[in-house]
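Let us practice reading a record.
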Amino acid sequence: MPALLLQYPQIDPVIFEIGPLVIRWYALAYIAGLLLAMVYMKRLVRDRRLWPGEPAITAEHIDDFLLWAALGVILGGRIGYVLFYNLRHFIANPAEIFAVWQGGMSFHGGFLGVIVAVIVFCRVSRLNPLTLLDLSAAAVPIGLFFGRGANFINGELFGRPTDVAWAMVFPHGGPEPRHPSQLYEAALEGIVLFLVLRFATHRLKLLARPGHVAGLFAIGYGLSRIAVEFVRNPDAHIGYFAGWLTMGMILSLPMLAVGAALVLNARRGHA
């Protein structure tokens, strides 16, 4: 037992209820993350210091992309969770696939969903998909920060048992003190990654190299997720692969490869 055990804050996952209408922190986190990400993307587009010339993507394009991004995140996140994390259960209970209010979203699925949304939107709007991917990548940590905060409020995705001083006993995690891995992810994937990408866009001016910022995001997220997976409790119905490998690690490895390829391609294009 750690010498200092932090008290887990008992925050009701439901903000308020009015008859059948139930507003949850989890849903609010998705809405706030998307809206703030779009606001930030528009600020990037309007900042002429970040672009070598007039940016082809305008603030109006970002507004039009909001619905596409929301569909990519929600549909991709849910489909990814169904396919990657609990396919056998959903095959037996297909009606639960649509019960998104019960939780169960995959970041990696949402990531793929946004990529598809970017490609289709840019083809329709005749825009460079790499530039829109860069803008999206720079803003995604905002949504990740809110999403991981919502995971913490829900008391889900907690860490493994530990004796560190900041351990917490989660309501659904048994009596053992555990790593607050949701807060680790909020810090790494949200705050740290945002600052790294902010440095890339504002100090290094990498928006002038299409694909570079998106590549840095993929590498940064992949490394952050793999690092936290060493202390995060794996899904009970999946467990470990080869004694220590988790599904989160497996799904993050392709992100590292794709991110490295994007960075190399962007560098070659501006060599």
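A brief commentary: Residues 23-269 form one domain.
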